[in-house]
Design a protein that fits this description.
By secondary structure, this protein is mostly beta strands. The protein contains 2 helices and 11 strands. Strands 2, 3, 4, 5, 6, 7, 8 and 9 form an 8-stranded mixed sheet that branches. The protein has a 3-stranded antiparallel sheet with strand order 1-11-10, with no helix packed on it.
Length: 148
């Protein structure tokens, strides 16, 4: 049986660019996620749903308390390809659920990058989440859901 979880949309003006008389809207697509711990589940966290991220990224403030199977260490790079522009991470198997006000998915077993950088955002990417779901996004009406 499939479970549908509502996605949330946020929109704010980039204030630094607005000071230069350039209007750019910063848009985010987010979903609530909870992670398995040794005894229970974490509180729900608001995570960025990123269709451009191959793997999820979890900051240390969250992953230090969750169940995890460390598979190795790695360095990931983003849009900046300089040799020293990378994020050190551990890659691990973890378990999580997605939720909204009404629904909770079954347990999702995913691979995730566990960031060693405190300021890393909580990002849900393709590996074992979006790749195993149907994603519906209506940006014109700020409406969407993920069906797992």
């Amino acid at each position: 049986m499939s479970i549908s979880v509502r996605l949330h949309f946020s929109k704010a003006l980039d204030l630094e660019l607005l000071e230069k008389n350039i209007e750019v809207w910063l848009r985010r697509l987010t979903v609530q996620v909870s992670f398995k711990t040794p005894r229970a589940w974490t509180q729900p966290y608001e995570a960025i749903m990123d269709t451009g991220a191959p793997v999820s990224i979890i900051p240390p403030a969250i992953w230090k308390d969750i169940d995890r199977e460390i598979l190795g260490e790695y360095k990931i790079q983003g849009i900046v390809l300089k040799r020293d522009a990378f994020l050190p991470v551990k890659i691990a198997n973890i378990s999580c659920v997605l939720m909204d006000e009404k629904n909770v998915t079954g347990t999702l077993k995913i691979k995730a990058y566990l960031s060693l950088e405190e300021k890393a955002p909580l990002v849900l990417g393709f590996e074992n989440i979006i790749s195993n779901a149907r994603l519906y996004i209506d940006t014109k009406n700020d409406d969407g859901c993920i069906v797992i």
